Amino acid sequence: DQQVKQNSPSLSVQEGRISILNCDYTNSMFDYFLWYKKYPAEGPTFLISISSIKDKNEDGRFTVFLNKSAKHLSLHIVPSQPGDSAVYFCAARSFGNEKLTFGTGTRLTIIP
Amino acid sequence: EAQVTQNPRYLITVTGKKLTVTCSQNMNHEYMSWYRQDPGLGLRQIYYSMNVEVTDKGDVPEGYKVSRKEKRNFPLILESPSPNQTSLYFCASSFLQSGANVLTFGAGSRLTVL
Q1: Residue A45 touches chain B, beta carbons under 8 Å
Q2: Candidates B4, B48, B104; nearest CB to A99
Q3: What one-character DSSP code corresponds to residue A16?
Q4: Count of CB contacts below 8 A, A vs B?
């Protein structure tokens, strides 16, 4: 039972344009959401997060949007840069539970 | 430098030969966890530990053991590896605190079981 889903295994975007990565979840107890970025031969690194009490969180070029009624979140990267090419994982956690449940990942390729 | 260190980074072994993947963190984190990454399945939790001598199963614990005798170390033990344990393994750690649980990951250990 995949509680966190990333339905697009891959995405290609032109440099300078907006990249939008999507994530859906099924567990209504999730209250904290994170995005991790992973380069080849490296471990995932934390990118940005959002609490369920918010619907948007912004950090530089990265913005995460949360739609609780739709159980959907998205990561926007503007403008996209070649260094953004990586695999992006969405993750979720419920209150009082330290465990992070990860999605299957989306491979983002930025085309110069 | 604050980090999670895993060893070995790459290992090829044969079915049934016991192996241990070590994990060490230098951030004084209470929480440590092991994940495996497989194509199309993302990152799945194997075991986790909330503190010394406190461990519990994650989503896919079968065939694995762990121990937490010291705060900084959390080794993953495969007593009798099988080919379905061929995977990319990540150790991760974090503080236990309300709010954000931001895991710091190691660089990964790629294991092949023949």
Answers
A1: yes
A2: B48
A3: T
A4: 59
pLDDT value of residue B100? 61
**Least CB–CB distance from B42: residue in A51, A98, A104:** A104
Q: Do B103 and A100 touch (CB under 8 A)?
A: yes
Instruction: Please count the other Cβ atoms lying within 10 Å of the Cβ belonging to residue A45.
Output: 14
Series of mean pLDDT values for 10-residue runs along chain B (114 residues): 94 95 96 94 94 93 97 97 97 78 92 96
3-state helix, strand, coil in chain A (%, to 5): 5, 55, 40
Which one-letter DSSP state was computed for residue A53? T
Q: Which of B102, B103, B105 has the highest number of chain A CBs within 10 A, making it the mutation to test binding with A? A: B103
HSE toward the beta carbon, residue B101, CA cutoff 13 A: 25
> Residue ranges per domain, chain A?
4-111
Check: CB of residue A18 under 8 Å from CB of residue A108.
no
CATH of domain A4-111: 2.60.40.10
pLDDT in tens, A40-91: 999 999 999 999 999 999 999 999 999 999 999 999 999 999 999 999 999 9
What's the CA gap between B30 and B72, in Å, rounded? 8
